Every structure is written in C-alpha cells, then in structure tokens.
Fold this sequence. Notes:
Layout: E1 8-19, E2 25-49, E3 52-64, H1 67-70, E4 77-80, E5 83-93, E6 98-104, E7 110-111
Antiparallel strand pairs: 1-2, 1-4, 2-3, 3-6, 3-7, 4-5, 5-6
Amino acid sequence: MRAGALDRRLTIQEKVITQSDSGEEQVTWSTIATVWAQKIENRGSERFAAQQYVGHSVRTFKIRYSSTVAAVTTEHRLVYDGVNYDITDVRELGRREGIEIDAYAPSESAVV
C-alpha cells in the first residue's frame, strides 16, 4: 500500500450506550482511531421506497493494518469530511497489509 495514496483523514468510532438519569438509553459515539486512508468511489445504487427512487453511493476506504483497526466491524462507523458513514463490509488486505472498508452515508441518500 503506497503511502502517497493514503491522503484522507478518517475517524473510526464505536457506539456507546449509556442510561440517562431518567433511565432512557442514550447512544453516543466514541472515537477509537483517526487514520490516514485512501477513498475510492466505487458504485451507486437506487431502490424504490415510499413511492420514490432513493439512491446512495458506496465508498471504499483503504487503511493501514493495526491491531486497533483490525477489530473494526459493521457495528462501528466512519467519519470522513464531517459526514458519518455506516460500515457495510470490512476485509483484510494481504497478510495484515491493510484493511478495506465499504461504507455509505445514509444522510447523503437522495431522491432520484
């Protein structure tokens, strides 16, 4: 993995569930790592929902392998350029060379 290709800052967060004083569950996100990544725009999709076509694009992020990022699952999320991305797939590249993460931003979904 070429260092020059890792030109984007990516934050990896995990969900933290706590209880408020009134007993309600509160969901917050805690940063577990901020890493350099390569962003790849790879595909888009459309589906029919609520009488409208809704589209979103899936992005792939490649990052260097570390024990921290090796534990990333679809329960985590990514933050890139101020946008939250839901993780859909995580793959190890080679023999601990890197991690490839597919994710999409639900807030970027658009009516087509």
